[in-house]
Design brief:
The chain is mainly α. The chain folds into 2 domains: 126 residues; 75 residues, no CATH class. It is built from 13 helices and 2 strands. A two-stranded antiparallel sheet has the order 1-2. Helix 1 runs antiparallel to helix 13, helix 5 runs antiparallel to helix 7 and helix 7 runs antiparallel to helix 8. It starts with 7 loop residues before the first helix and ends with a helix. Keywords: Cytoplasm, Nucleus, Signalosome. One of its GO terms (biological process) is protein deneddylation. This is CSN8/PSMD8/EIF3K domain-containing protein.
């Protein structure tokens, strides 16, 4: 079925109706050719391009296509990439993710000014990144200090080292064990849970639908 022309409303509808990040990425990919024909000197088209490329960027991250996300920045209009606040935020986030600077990733996601339409995707990616990192840490370490584990997940390392029950419960709920004598957590590999990933994205879609209704 042919897609409707790219517009602010159509972009919101695509995000709201996508059943998974993979479906969102696939649909947005089909719009890239049309996006290339839009002008960055036209105010409305430049705003649409900013939103399209920012959304497309997060669809890359939500499907763990980090290398492809880097390549996509080469295909964006470079004048827009260098001047648009949302795309600059995306570029800063990409660098932090690529360089595995965990603290910086969370700082960028939580503290940089993201546009209202993009905020649900930013929040969804934070949850995705945190969950993915938790699984990586669970596989990589036999023992780890709570402060270090908390840093990987964007949690308060000082509170974790002091045994904050809320933070500690996050690890224990994953099957980790706590050795009080040594002050070490002992991770246990976490199995993949596609249903949980789908649930996170469905929650994002519901939020995007509400935003779209408000605009209408």
């Amino acid at each position: 079925m042919d897609l409707l022309p790219l517009s602010q409303d159509q972009l919101a509808a695509v995000v709201a109706s996508a059943q998974s990040p993979t479906e969102l990425y696939s649909t947005l990919s089909e719009y890239e050719g049309e996006a290339c024909l839009l002008s960055t000197t036209d105010g409305e088209q430049a705003e649409l391009l900013s939103r399209y490329y920012s959304t497309f960027f997060f669809s890359h991250l939500l499907t763990d296509q980090i290398r492809e996300a880097r390549l996509s920045t080469k295909r964006m209009p470079q004048d827009l990439l260098q001047s648009d606040p949302s795309l600059q935020n995306c570029l800063n986030l990409l660098r932090a993710v690529w360089q595995r600077k965990y603290e910086q990733v969370y700082k960028i996601l939580r503290e940089l000014p993201w546009s209202e339409p993009l905020k649900p995707m930013v929040q969804s990616y934070e949850a995705h990144f945190q969950e993915k990192t938790l699984k990586e840490v669970s596989r990589a370490y036999e023992a780890i200090r709570p402060a270090a584990a908390a840093t990987y997940l964007g949690l308060d390392p000082t509170a974790a080292q002091q045994g904050d029950p809320v933070i500690m419960q996050k690890f224990l709920a994953c099957g980790w064990t706590w050795e009080e004598e040594t002050g070490l957590l002992h991770p246990k590999p976490i199995l993949e849970d596609p249903q949980k990933d789908a649930q996170l994205y469905n929650e994002l879609s519901e939020v995007m639908a509400l935003i779209g209704n408000r605009r209408a």
